[in-house]
Every structure is written in structure tokens, then in C-alpha cells.
Amino acid sequence: MRFLWVERCVRLFFLLCAFGSVAVTIGIVASLIGEALRFFSRVSPIDFLFGLTWAPYTLPTGEVSGFGAIPLFTGTALITLVAMAVAIPCGTMIAVYLSEYATSSVRQIFKPLLETLAGIPTLVYGFFAATTLAPILREIAGFFQISIASESALNAGLVMGIMILPYMSSLCEDALHRLPTSLREGSMGLGATSSETIVRVLLPAAFPNLMAAFLLSLSRAIGETMIVVMAAGLAANLTFNPLEAVTTVTVQIVNLLTGEQEFDNAKTLAAFGLGFVLFILTLFLNILALYGIKRYKRIYG
Amino acid sequence: MTLKINVNHLNLFYGNKQALFDVSLGFPEFQTTALIGPSGCGKSSFLRCLNRMNDIIPNAHVDGQVLLDDKDIYAPSVDVVELRTHVGMVFQKPNPFPRSIYENVAYGPRIHSLFKSKADLDQIVEKSLVRAGLWEEVKDRLYQPATRLSGGQQQRLCIARAIAVNPEVILMDEPCSALDPIATAKVEELIDELRERFTIVIVTHNLQQAARVSQQTAFFHSGYLVEAGETGALFTIPQDARTQGYITGRYG
Questions:
Q1: Which terminus of chain B has fewer CB atoms gathered within 10 Å of its CB, N or C?
Q2: Chain B residues lying within 8 Å of A187, measured CB to CB
Q3: Residues in chain B with pLDDT < 50?
């Protein structure tokens, strides 16, 4: 009887732990939605989502202007695009090397190194972007007689790409390494070389998991703040030129809330509006990644 | 009777561990040779020496001679990739690529550019599937994922895939161990038909299977080739006490 009683308590305790974490998550989302709704009662969602000018300002009369978030989203998209252009090819190639070509001793050195890189605070990457990469880019641009903003989307995107590289290559390496040896042998047994096996069999077979790795890294890049604050600047330019300064959703959230104590005006509440859209976006990407894997596994699993 | 493959004094090492000891065995052309023996006796390792699949394993090394049509396949001038087009392989577990049925069979011809036109490739695919006895079952769904086929169909697809590159020898590593009895019967029947065109080497745990499909049987025990000979003779009057013990089920 004593044991039964202990069992019940333990079970209840763990149930509470699980329930607690879920409850906190729901609470966070609820507070986000609540504040976002307060914001959308002051600024129309259509003006917010499709407006082309970002210069949030509340007139003394209570009128609001400049809450068009499009420049922020294009800025985020531009920087993320540059980051993915760096991280996807490099990440995949690093993964292929580590999983298929590296001897186990090389892998034992490289994998922990990559994982260390993943543990560096993003602030440090921000320093690197601002103090090292920016001057180099300026030199290169100067050589080709191109003008480049000191805080450019290119600069931030490149460093962000480097930042997500360890995370991405680690995920991709797992995806490749998990493939059954029988696939490799089947291909080699037909007289395929290693490279043919990788390109024609292994990468297609790992495709859904690679895709998931890309999408997870993408959500990470979209949510990244520190690098952009330091390297991309605050100017909300509507541009697709990576050489110009842009700003991102996350940077503007920081900017809107800095120094403010009261969350009662449209300007501070706008941060919640932005946060809400960002949340929906990354949630959608993560669901897409999970759904894609499931679907592919149903067909080929 | 010509020997398609002739193995002379083969030793195989994984690092410092020796897996095969001085094995010599000839494989007659257009016959099926069964390799039998208890688990870990080296029969699969031996099979993998015949198309140099052991090359993939780090630290594996071989000395001795493996002659395919009187040419040593371990000679430095030999192109392993080309060798494997002559000596195909079917594995223990069906391992179709996660692509369509058609693409699985077309894989080998594609990487070796064995066709001139799309119609040519279509024909190779059809012929291979017909020979593997799978054509009738899949001809209406060639572009569906191969992984949707049953285990037995997948294994015959793997055989079709191996045939498609036009090998001379087909190595089979326990091809029926993951199949049910009906699928096994089909594959065995297929092996008997394939013998007209190919020299076949099959590793099997199933003694009845060895007796049914092979003309020559070789018995391995802890890395040594104990005894080899005509299948009927080996099963009825084994020369070695270890062979007798194994085939009468005293151990295994």
C-alpha cells in the first residue's frame, strides 16, 4: 500500500511539471495576443501589414502615422536571404564532408569544434560583423567602385549565415548520418562512386530532413536580433539592395521598447504587433518543417 | 567447365583481426554456388571480397588472389567501379532507393551511361524487370515509390536493379532472410532462371535453400573453408566431421 501511495504522488508531481510548462507557454502566447489586439484596436491591421512607411509616431491629437511594417519585413527577408545563401550550400557541404568523407578521427575533432561555434553568444558575432567584416566589405566595395552602406544587409546577412552554419551543418550531418548503410552499399554495389552515391541517392533520401534543417535554421535567422542591431542598423529603408542599410522586425521591437516604461501608447504596443506576426511566421515555418517530414515518410518510409 | 571466378589463398583482415584464412575456391560459370556455415564464420565477408565491397570498410585488407576471367581484381590497375558493373550484388535486407520503381532500375544504366535514348532506357528497365519476374506486377505503376512494394517485390526489384547493368556474376547475401516463405519461393525460382545467363554466388543460413538452388556448396567455419563440392554430394556424404555436424543440425 505504501508504494502505491508514493507512486501516485510521484505521478502527480510529474504531471504538474508537464502541465506547468504547457501553461506557461499558453500564458505567453495569450499575453502576446492580448497586447497585439490592443495595438490593432489603435492601428488598423491593414495599414500595419501593408503600409510602406515605418516611422511610428503618435500625434498629440491621438492620431497615429507611419505604422507600415512592410519595410521591416522586407529587411528581415533580405538579411535572412543573404544568411541562407551562405548557410544552405556551406552547411550541406560541411555535412556531406563530415558524414561521408571524414575519417572518424577528423570527425571527432570537427564536430565538437562546430558545436562550440554554436555556443558563442550572438553578440560576439555582432562585434565581428561591425568591427571586422564591415571594413573588409567596404574595402572590397571600394575596389570595385561600388558604394556600400557602413551598416548593410549584406554584412549582417553574411555574419548571420556564419552564425547559423554550425547549427545547420550539425542538423544536416545528423540527417545524412542516420541514413541506413544499406543505401550506400546498394549504390556502391552497382558501381557508383562515392560522389554519385551522395548526389543521386543520399541527398535525395535525406531531403525531407535536410529541408527541416533549413526551415529550423530559417526560423532562427528570422528571430535573430543582436547581430542585426550591431550590423544592419535602424533605418527602415524599403529596398532589395543588400548593399544598403535595412532594419528588421526584431531590431524595431527592441527599438520601440527601449527606455519606455508604460505600454499604453500605439508606439510601444506596436512591438507586440510585430512580435505577434513574427511568432506566427516562425510557428508556420516549424509546422511546415514537421509536416513535410511526416508526409515524405508516409510515402517513402 | 570453365571457372568464372577463381580464388587463391585469400586472407582477409579487419585491422589486426583475421577474418578469413587461406581460402581457395573456384566458381564454375553459369552455376550457383551456395556459401553456408554458422554465423560469424566469414561467409559474408568472403562474398564481399568478390566485388571488393570490403574496400568501403576502413582498415579492411586482403591478400591472395581473386581472379575474374583470369584477371586479378585486386591488381592495382583494376577500376573498382568497373569491376562492380561485372559483379553485381543483392543484399540481405531489400534496399530500394527512396525513388520510383523505374528510377531504381534505371539507376545503374544512368550512372554508367549504358543507353543511347530514352526508349533505349525504357527497354533496359522493362527487360530487367521481366527477368526479375516483377514486370507483370509493376508495369502499371512504374512511377510509384519503390518503398510501397512488399518485401518480396522489393527484393526482386533489387535483383532487377542489379541485372540492369548487365553483370556476369551476381552475389547474393542472404537474399531471402527477410522474406516470407512465398516470396522466398519466388526468389529461389528466379535464381534458378538467372543461372542461364549469370554466375551466382549466394550466402544462406537456410540449408534447404542451399540444397534447392545451388549446384556447388562451400562450408565455412570460423574463417576457414572446411569443405566444398557438388551440392548433392556435400549434403549426403560430407567429408569433414564439422560439415556433418552443421548439416545434421548439431550446431548452427
A1: N
A2: 97, 107
A3: none
